[in-house]
């Protein structure tokens, strides 16, 4: 097995992705449960899935239901069946900047589960991540690399431990060509 250099936190070995802008636009109108999202003025500190940063006090946000595995399955042709989940996500009420490349440090600092999925959409396993590791881009990127060393892992969902909420996803690295977030 070759050793990787994890000092480059902008490594795009695994494609880390916020919710795609076109999907965020859809969620602003009607969420994945078929409802209008709930508008709120934020007190600050909520994890924004549109730009992978924490909200600031006074920002106009929406709370929407999101089915990340369903959306991924529609792109890939997978059939997650009973593994499909729906959960709450905070997004900006208006268009915002896309996240910076690399591990989203602002989304760390809390305990996380890095849940792995097979290409057919079924859960393969998961890795509990302590707060200090989720806040460290080098350690978190190294863990993603280790998870993707398993050829069965197609997708990783990073989720909050306390609430189980989807935070962001990492997709299996592409062998050649430019990396695109979808």
Which key features would you list for this structure?
single chain, 182 residues, alpha+beta, 5-stranded antiparallel beta sheet, 10 strands, disordered N terminus
Q: Which whole number gives the mean pLDDT?
A: 87
Can you tell me the number of structural domains?
1
Which strand order does the major sheet show?
1-10-9-7-8
Estimated helix fraction: 10-25%
Largest sheet composition: 5 strands, antiparallel
Low-confidence stretches: 1-12, 176-182
Beta-strand content estimate: 25-35%
> Rg from C-alpha positions?
16 Å
First and last CA, distance: 30 Å
SSE run: EHEEEEHEEEHHEE
Organism: Nonomuraea cypriaca
Pfam families: DUF1203
Region (Disordered): 1-47
Protein name: DUF1203 domain-containing protein
Concise synopsis of the structure shown:
This protein is of the alpha+beta class and 182 residues long.
């Amino acid at each position: 097995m070759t050793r990787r250099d994890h000092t480059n936190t902008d490594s795009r070995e695994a494609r880390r992705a916020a919710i795609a802008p076109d999907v965020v636009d859809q969620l602003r109108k009607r969420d994945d449960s078929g409802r209008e999202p709930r508008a709120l003025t934020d007190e600050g500190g909520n994890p924004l899935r549109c730009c992978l940063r924490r909200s600031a006090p006074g920002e106009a946000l929406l709370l929407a239901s999101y089915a990340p595995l369903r959306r991924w399955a529609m792109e890939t042709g997978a059939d997650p069946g009973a593994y499909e989940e729906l959960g709450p996500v905070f997004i900006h009420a208006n268009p915002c900047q896309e996240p910076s490349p690399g591990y989203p440090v602002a989304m760390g600092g809390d305990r996380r589960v890095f849940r792995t999925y097979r290409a057919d959409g079924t859960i393969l396993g998961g890795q509990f991540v302590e707060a200090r590791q989720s806040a460290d881009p080098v350690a978190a990127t190294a863990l993603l690399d280790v998870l993707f060393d398993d050829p069965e892992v197609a997708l990783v969902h990073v989720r909050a431990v306390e609430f189980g909420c989807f935070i962001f996803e990492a997709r299996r690295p592409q062998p050649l060509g430019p990396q695109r977030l979808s």
